[in-house]
Design goal:
Elements: H1 2-15, H2 19-35, E1 47-56, E2 67-68, E3 75-80, E4 86-91, E5 105-109, E6 114-118, E7 125-128, E8 140-143, E9 176-177, E10 197-202, H3 209-224
Helix pairs in contact: 1-2, 2-3
Region (Disordered): 159-192
Biased composition (Polar residues): 173-192
InterPro entries: Cupredoxin (IPR008972), Ser-rich/MCO-related (IPR052953)
Length: 225
């Protein structure tokens, strides 16, 4: 593009085109260059982020959401309720009540405590509470479970999860990643009164080409008058 502009400037000087028409010609070239910018690649398209709220200690020994899907970049907002202490620890589908080596560990807490973690990749996550007999009594759950997966028979079925509406605003405060351990789990400020799932979309890539093009067109018409 720089080479083309230089050629146009040389042409204006050599042919002695009037200043007004020369500037208009330059602006026309800029309009074409701006409007011909390539569209964003599919991976650069608007990102949709969902905030999943999971009540810890729901119905005594359970999670309000225990079988749902979450994509990369989604936020898991864990909110403890009740006076009993519970933990949130990552496990595996094969052994839901056994801590996964290197998995996330949010520690043992009771209300009021909440923490947000971001999903680093879309894969299967299993979580449970290792306090007393919590897990055996149904305090476990999974995210992106394989199709047709069935929990081990020796475990009590988890409580029926809450059907959550799409509400706002999203939970606020500090956020950590799925690699968190109990020593680093920082509480999120504030709380969410009801279990909910909040969906929001934001365009992270769209440039203001339309505004720029429109402005250049107006300038061109003005100069040609």
């Amino acid at each position: 593009m720089k080479q083309n502009l230089v050629k146009v400037i040389i042409l204006i000087v050599e042919t002695k085109i009037s200043y007004k028409y020369g500037v208009a010609l330059l602006i026309s070239i800029l309009i074409v260059a701006v409007s011909s910018q390539p569209s964003p690649a599919p991976e650069d398209q608007p990102v949709s982020i969902t905030n999943h709220v999971i009540k810890v200690g729901y119905m005594g020994t359970g999670f309000s959401q225990n079988n749902f899907t979450a994509g990369k970049g989604d936020v898991l907002y864990w909110e403890w309720e009740g006076e009993l202490k519970h933990s949130v620890i990552e496990s595996t589908p094969e052994t839901p009540c056994v801590k996964k080596e290197g998995g996330f560990d949010l520690g043992v807490h009771k209300t009021p405590f909440n923490v947000s973690i971001a999903v680093e990749e879309k894969r299967t996550y299993v979580f449970f509470s290792d306090v007393s007999d919590d897990c055996k009594n149904g305090m476990y759950g999974g995210i992106n479970l394989p199709q047709g997966y069935v929990w081990p028979e020796q475990l009590t079925a988890p409580p029926k999860q809450i059907e959550t509406p799409n509400l706002g605003p999203k939970p606020t405060g500090s956020m950590t990643t799925m690699g968190v351990n109990s020593a680093n789990a920082q509480p999120t400020q504030g709380s969410v009164s009801d279990s909910l799932e909040i969906s929001s979309s934001c365009d992270l890539t769209k440039p203001g080409y339309n505004i720029i093009t429109g402005t250049l067109v107006l300038i061109s018409f003005y100069l040609l008058l």
